[in-house]
Specification:
InterPro entries: Casein_kin_II_reg-sub_N, Casein_kinase_II_beta-like, Casein_kinase_II_reg-sub. Residues 217-264 are annotated as: Disordered. This protein has helices at 4-11, 23-27, 42-49, 59-80, 84-95, 142-145, 156-163, 186-208, 216-219, 233-240; strands spanning 113-115, 127-130, 135-137, 179-180, 183-184. Helix 3 (42-49) crosses helix 4 (59-80). It is mostly helical. The protein is built from ten helices and five strands. 39% of the residues lie in helices and 5% in strands. The strands form two sheets. The chain has a three-stranded antiparallel beta sheet, with no helix packed on it. The protein has a two-stranded antiparallel ribbon with strand order 4-5. The chain binds zinc ion. Zinc ion binds at residues 102, 104, 107, 110, 130, 132-133.
């Protein structure tokens, strides 16, 4: 049987982030565990998604079943895209830049991946993750900005790079350096020096464990004006070792006292 519903679903405007779920996956009850309590009109919704829907429903009921079918598709999608087959499909879309490109200047249009901040539906909308700067962004289009983040989940983008580690982009030390008429802004320059020191300390700590962490700039000849800069990557690594609230990269005021003296 032709997969009419799913084909139409993934090709309709606003659904560009979704891949087509295999029929085999959808018809295996094991994969749908727990969703019958999550989705109203569950059986009708499933029939609609699998193209066996056969009910003479009035417009009102039909509309509600269609809404449920969309919700069901989304929830199954979050599970499907962490399977081998689903990962491969999403990888193709990532390579085609279906999820857009990172807006950060130094990421040079690196492709993004969709992600959820929560796995529970109706909590937050879909966000986009850039593996190069390891930051998250809001979708540009309002059609995408309203999609439930739980349809992609919190783990998919990380699983993708665990399964395809070679695709993880090389980290860069390049970052924007604020200047006023050519002179470095003092506080920013002091913060940059502190971050440089932290990065070097982290690199030598890693070296102590036998891990050699390299940046793009360590292997390439850098010819642009920003080449003496720090990176965002170390901040991310550093942050992951600190308790929440000690966000050194974003809020100077939030940093623990004594951890960073940027004013000397
Ligand atoms: Zn980026």
């Amino acid at each position: 049987m032709a997969n009419v519903y799913r084909e139409q679903f993934v090709s309709s405007r606003g659904n560009e982030y979704f891949c087509e779920i295999d029929e085999d996956y959808l018809t295996d009850r094991f994969n749908l565990t727990g969703l019958n309590t999550e989705v109203p009109y569950y059986q009708y919704a499933l029939d609609l998604v699998t193209d066996v829907f056969d009910l003479d429903a009035d417009d009102d009921l039909r509309e509600q079943i269609e809404k449920s079918a969309r919700h069901l598709y989304g929830l199954v999608h979050a599970r499907y895209i962490t399977t081998t087959r689903g990962l491969a499909k999403m990888l193709d879309k990532y390579k085609r830049h279906d999820f857009g490109k990172c807006p950060r200047v130094f990421c040079e249009g690196h492709p993004l991946l969709p992600m959820g901040q929560h796995d529970i539906p109706n909590t937050s909308t879909v966000k986009l993750y850039c593996p190069k700067c390891e930051d998250t962004y809001n979708p540009k289009s309002s059609r995408h900005a309203t999609i439930d983040g739980a349809y992609f989940g919190t783990s998919f983008h990380s699983i993708l790079f665990q399964v395809y580690p070679a695709l993880n982009p090389e980290k860069s030390r390049r970052r924007y350096e604020p200047r006023v008429y050519g002179f470095k802004v003092h506080a920013a320059a002091a913060l940059a020096r502190w971050q440089d020191k932290q990065r070097e300390a982290l690199q030598s700590r890693l070296r102590g464990f036998g891990i050699e962490h390299r940046y793009i700039e360590d292997t390439e000849v850098e010819e642009d004006e920003f080449d003496d800069d720090d990176d965002d990557d170390t901040e991310q690594l550093e942050q992951s070792q600190q308790p929440e609230g000690a966000d050194v990269s974003r809020g100077v005021a939030d940093a623990e006292p004594g951890r960073m003296d940027i004013f000397n």
